[in-house]
Design goal:
The chain is about 40% helix and about 25% strand. The chain is α/β, with parallel strands linked by helices. Strands 4-3-2-1-5-6-7 form a seven-stranded antiparallel sheet, with helices on both faces. The protein has a seven-stranded mixed sheet with strand order 10-9-8-11-12-14-13, with helices on both faces.
């Protein structure tokens, strides 16, 4: 390769490195691979921040599967130069302001075209400070990247990585779920474990199951075993086929339900939209196996409602069925939260995602407490609430006793 060619390649690679350092890198793609690995098509690079460190996340796109490798900033430029001097004949850099297209002819001649990013805001200031840029990106932070292969395979995104309009609500739900999970992971220190085991009961079409697996593997780079448990054998087969098509390891789907599934050593227990006492069985399994994180989205609160004997003072309010149902829901999930508190968990009950996206929008999030404490006062509160409403039995309490 001539000196001129080397200088041009070095200049391009330096511009890529600067974009990574300045946090203006949107995307960098190396294509037209001519190396010995017949399965490799291209490598796509994006910027990620893990544990306060900015990295170049390199997605190796093979014909049958994808592999992500994160590279430190100090090593990225040398690696990119090695790719261009070796087996890749094309690269496309997109920053907040510029697009740069590089191609290498068969004779080794380097051609570079540089033009403004047509999607850049008209008032974009190329002198924008790094702090301002970081602040801007934080405001628009997504916990799930649109270009993840499983999103395309599950029909969330199209071939170009754009969200399919009819799946926009599911896309928002996935992002919110991973956001909630990521905070719980930080609080419990699960990212520091060598291996994490996750069970998702009632996994359905497994949108969230795949998202959780991908988050641990791609973002946290923690060895992970995810098991999706689903009653419907057809969905179990479909999800296993999807995992095989994406060549994913550490994720599998089994036929079963939370009441009969035998689990040991689970770190994260997930059960979204588990009907009635299925939520109690899920919470019990999480407590029994010592899960650091328990995430439930309950529905169909049937057990408590027929038992409730509200005080006469409240009768005018509760003569309306909708009010009685809402009170039964509040009492049921309130007791569940207190029982989790009494068995070593810090617990929150909150709106998981707004009602415009799903009517089943409540989440119970429990994070295992690191230090034990006296729970006698909480147990008395549970007993007092049951006595007030005339409740004889609550499923989770029975399972725990």
């Amino acid at each position: 390769m001539s000196n001129v060619t080397s200088l041009e390649l070095n200049g391009f690679v330096q511009e890529c490195a600067n974009a990574l350092t300045d946090n203006t890198l949107q995307r960098l793609v190396f294509s037209k691979y001519r190396g010995d690995d017949k399965e490799l098509n291209r490598i796509a690079v994006r910027s990620v921040e893990l544990k306060g460190q900015r990295l170049a996340s390199c997605l190796y796109e093979y014909r049958t599967h994808h592999i992500t490798k994160n590279v430190e900033q100090t090593d990225a430029a040398a690696l990119w130069l090695q790719w261009l001097e070796g087996d890749f004949q094309s690269a496309h850099l997109i920053t907040h302001e510029w697009e740069v297209q590089l191609s290498i002819s068969k004779k080794g001649k380097v051609l570079i075209n540089k033009y403004r990013n047509k999607n850049a805001p008209k008032n974009y200031d190329k002198q924008l400070s790094v702090d301002d840029t970081l602040s801007h990106n934080r405001a628009k932070k997504r916990f799930v990247e649109q270009d993840r292969p499983y999103l395309r395979e599950l029909g969330i995104t199209d071939a170009k990585g754009e969200i399919i309009p009819s799946m926009s609500r599911k896309w928002k739900q996935i992002n919110k779920f991973i956001e909630v999970l990521s905070r719980a992971i930080d609080n419990t220190g699960l990212a520091d474990k060598k291996e994490v085991h996750i069970a998702d009961f009632g996994s359905g079409k497994a949108y969230l199951t795949f998202a959780v697996h991908d988050y641990f593997i791609d973002k946290l780079q923690v060895k992970t075993q995810v098991t999706g448990v689903e009653l419907r054998q057809g969905l179990v087969d479909l999800c296993n086929q999807t995992a095989a098509k994406l060549a994913l390891t550490g994720i599998k789907f089994e036929q079963g339900d939370v009441q009969h599934f035998k689990a040991q050593g689970i770190n994260i227990m997930i059960a979204l939209h588990a009907c009635d006492i299925a939520t109690d069985y899920a919470l019990h399994m999480g407590i029994r196996t010592g899960a650091e994180i328990i995430m439930c989205s309950p529905c169909c609160h049937k057990q408590i409602r027929p038992q409730m004997q509200s005080p006469q003072l409240l009768a005018p309010l509760l003569q309306h069925g909708i009010h009685l149902g809402q009170e039964a829901e509040m009492v049921t999930d309130g007791l569940r939260a207190l029982l989790l508190e009494a068995h070593g968990y810090d617990t929150q009950v909150f709106e998981f995602i707004s009602l415009e996206h799903t009517s089943k929008n409540k989440m119970i999030l429990a994070q295992k407490r690191k230090q034990p404490r006296d729970n006698s006062a909480i147990l008395k509160q549970i007993a007092d609430i049951k006595a007030f409403y005339g409740i004889k039995e609550q499923c989770l309490e029975t399972l725990l006793s």
